[in-house]
Specification:
Strand content: 15-25%
Order of helices and strands: EHHEEHEHEHEHEEHEH
Shape: globular
Largest sheet: 9 strands, mixed
Helix content: 40-55%
Distance between the termini: 5 Å
Length: about 260
């Protein structure tokens, strides 16, 4: 039996009831997140993985992100194994939830659009977690971001990027930008593609992320009241380094993610 990619129906009679218990839980979880960022991450934010063992701060990030996912009705499911740090993770991008989904499995420094830094609370949490902010369309910003990426990976951290350069809609996987892969070559670390996939009742949900013309608040509220579903994190076969072929590295990463996202028999 095939797994069909579907959109979530708008009519959901249980949605108001979910808000009744999820909103209070979310508020409590946010307070815990503020405490985590204010006391733990600030104190030990530069800890790195040693001999494959995660530092306490990374485990706390994973626990907090897993809890946030559960509040939104998302059960994080790992498929495959992430490489040890340092590593460059490259993933498909659907919405803001992708960061928390990957963080539920492995703490990493994300590269995100600069606008997030100004979002209330979210921007502070992201900055506290080591997010590297990039101003889209600016070559100067990209050069600075890539330098920070290299420094973080050389220091032993994992960095995660979304090579599409923006969110895709309706399950569409856009072209991967190749230049960002140069950071992995400069830092001499492996590249591991990661496929993020949402499934409910055996069917892939293609609109779990942003819909066309949907803003952050609209998506946040829609997902907060949504029916439970699985959020799969597929850690795929690493992409071999190719100093003369960043384009090939990008295309191969995209091919492996696309294959993992496909409906399966």
């Amino acid at each position: 039996m095939s797994i069909d990619a579907v959109s979530t129906p708008d009519r959901d009679l249980l949605r108001p009831l979910r808000y009744l218990w999820r909103v209070p839980l979310l508020l409590v979880h946010i307070v815990l997140g503020i405490m985590l960022c204010g006391f733990i991450l600030t104190w030990r934010r530069h800890d790195v993985m040693k001999n494959g063992r995660e530092p306490f701060t990374h485990r706390m990030i994973r626990a907090w992100s897993t809890g946030l996912m559960r509040i939104f009705g998302l059960r994080s499911v790992r498929v495959g194994q992430p490489l040890r740090d340092p590593v460059l993770f490259v993933a498909n991008h659907t919405s803001w939830i992708d960061i928390e989904l990957l963080h539920s499995q492995r703490a990493a420094c994300f590269v995100a659009k600069a606008e997030i830094a100004s979002w209330p609370l979210v921007g502070w949490l992201a900055a506290s977690g080591g997010t590297i902010f990039h101003r889209r369309g600016s070559n100067h910003s990209l050069a600075a971001v890539m330098q920070v990426m290299v420094e973080r990976m050389r220091a032993g951290r994992a960095v995660a990027v979304f090579p599409e350069g923006g969110t895709g809609h309706n399950g569409v996987l856009k072209v991967f930008h190749a230049r960002i892969f140069q950071a992995a070559l400069d830092a001499d670390v492996p590249v591991q593609p990661v496929a993020l996939r949402f499934v409910r009742d055996g069917k892939r949900q293609i609109d779990a992320g942003f819909r066309d013309s949907e803003n952050f608040l609209q998506n946040f509220l829609r997902m907060l009241g949504g029916a439970p579903m699985d959020a799969e994190v597929h850690f795929l076969e690493p992409v071999p380094a190719s100093p003369e072929g960043r384009r090939r590295m990008a295309d191969l990463s995209r091919e492996r993610i696309a294959a993992a996202l496909e409906d399966r028999a």
